[in-house]
């Protein structure tokens, strides 16, 4: 979220307008052609932006437009031991639709259409109504991106992200929640000087995943009576600098492990009303467990610089549950996961004499993901990762990039792959 240079506006109305330009979180667009800060702030507030397709009926005071992004990637992987592979992968198309009535209500939705090994996959990223309830408060209803942290809500679109993928621990099976379903209130307050922003959400919350970890995504039902509360508070002491703190508190319920055809056990959510009677052959009953998550983030975007850091820590208490590969119900110990990264990007537009060189943006990121209490997840995902890349901006929202990624897996057995080097090439278009 970008702070304007003047503080004489209504923060909640600014948040509502910002949703219209949600795909123009102009860290990329601003630096793409060396635009000044005021131009960036105008774009972030929805001014001067011409969407690829839009319409308006002024008599009814309604408007709409289509935005989104698309990308395609190529990955070369070289693992220790000499194994290597190369493949064109992950072609995505993410259209986003926005319908607005005056400055009171904005409905927005994003879909993700992606190719997979099984064919084409269609996923709803979010679908929400934003209602301006007060000059300092917007009420959000529906399925929304989690307010926890910065990356998922603001940076995950590939043309905005400075790298070709998410930081370690911030993607699938990671610490950062992706989305939730429920209600959220968000807005901001002018301070002298500075700006304070807030988001508080109440939703169905996470669940136990098939592997026994946490599934931190939106579900259209609640498997227990305890709603999850989450949120973030951000402080912008000056233009371009934001410091934030996030939290999530919820509860998850144990799941049954049903036997599928071929003798494979799979986890399945159970009815909360029957949880006290669910018992396996060893006398264990399904139980509930508290989940707590907290973190902080800092971001600075000024001139040619884009600097970011983020830290998240989550804890799930011990729980009796079924999970993939288990025979009946088992007791899982406390699960603690930690993920963090630091990232820097610098546009050469201010130092290069050649126009083509001014479109070049070197980037670097280091991150770690640690898991304690679930060996299967730790062996698969715990890592230390270096990313070094170069972005070349063909246009303010069109980028081609190359990234060299060095991964060291920190919880694997000696006979497993310990390190791998990947080269990622990506083309991304935000519209």
From TrEMBL:
Keywords: Signal. Pfam families: Porin_O_P. Residues 262-275 have a biased composition (Basic and acidic residues). InterPro entries: Porin_dom_sf, Porin_O/P. Transmembrane segments: none annotated. Residues 1-34 form the signal peptide. Residues 255-282 are annotated as: Disordered. The keyword Signal applies. This is Phosphate-selective porin O and P.
């Amino acid at each position: 979220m970008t702070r304007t240079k003047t503080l004489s506006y209504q923060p909640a109305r600014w948040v509502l307008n910002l949703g219209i330009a949600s795909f123009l979180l102009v860290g990329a667009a601003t630096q793409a052609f060396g635009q000044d800060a005021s131009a960036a702030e105008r774009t972030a507030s929805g001014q001067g932006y011409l969407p690829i397709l839009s319409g308006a009926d002024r008599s009814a005071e309604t408007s709409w437009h289509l935005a989104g992004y698309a990308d395609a990637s190529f990955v070369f992987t070289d693992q220790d031991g000499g194994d290597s592979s190369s493949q064109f992968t992950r072609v995505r198309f993410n259209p986003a639709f926005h319908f607005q009535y005056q400055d009171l209500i904005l409905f927005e939705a994003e879909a993700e259409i992606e190719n997979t090994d099984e064919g084409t996959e269609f996923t709803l990223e979010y679908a929400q109504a934003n209602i301006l309830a007060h000059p300092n408060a917007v009420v959000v209803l529906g399925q929304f991106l989690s307010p926890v942290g910065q990356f998922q809500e603001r940076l995950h679109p590939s043309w905005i992200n400075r790298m070709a993928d998410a930081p370690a621990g911030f993607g699938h099976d990671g610490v950062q929640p992706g989305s939730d379903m429920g209600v959220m209130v968000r807005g901001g307050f002018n301070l002298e000087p500075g700006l304070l922003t807030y988001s508080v959400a109440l939703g169905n919350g996470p669940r136990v995943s098939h592997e026994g970890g946490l599934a931190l995504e939106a579900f259209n039902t609640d498997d227990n009576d305890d709603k999850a509360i989450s949120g973030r508070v951000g402080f912008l002491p000056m233009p371009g600098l934001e410091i934030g703190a996030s939290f999530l508190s919820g509860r998850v319920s144990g799941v049954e492990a049903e036997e599928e055809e071929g003798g494979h056990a799979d986890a399945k959510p159970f009815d909360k009303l029957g949880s006290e009677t669910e018992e396996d052959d060893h006398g264990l009953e399904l139980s509930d467990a508290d989940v707590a998550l907290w973190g902080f983030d800092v971001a600075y975007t000024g001139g040619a610089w884009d600097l970011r850091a983020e830290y998240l820590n989550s804890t799930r208490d011990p729980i009796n549950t079924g999970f993939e590969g288990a025979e009946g119900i088992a007791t899982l110990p406390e699960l603690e996961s930690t993920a963090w990264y630091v990232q820097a990007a610098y546009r050469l537009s201010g130092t290069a004499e050649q126009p083509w060189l001014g479109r070049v943006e070197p980037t670097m990121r280091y991150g770690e993901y640690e898991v304690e209490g679930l060996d299967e997840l730790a062996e698969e995902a715990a890592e230390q990762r270096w990313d070094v890349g170069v972005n070349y901006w063909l246009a303010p929202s069109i980028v081609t990039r190359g990234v060299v990624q060095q991964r060291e897996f920190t919880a694997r057995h000696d006979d497993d792959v310990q390190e791998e080097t990947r080269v990622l090439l990506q083309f991304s278009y935000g519209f």
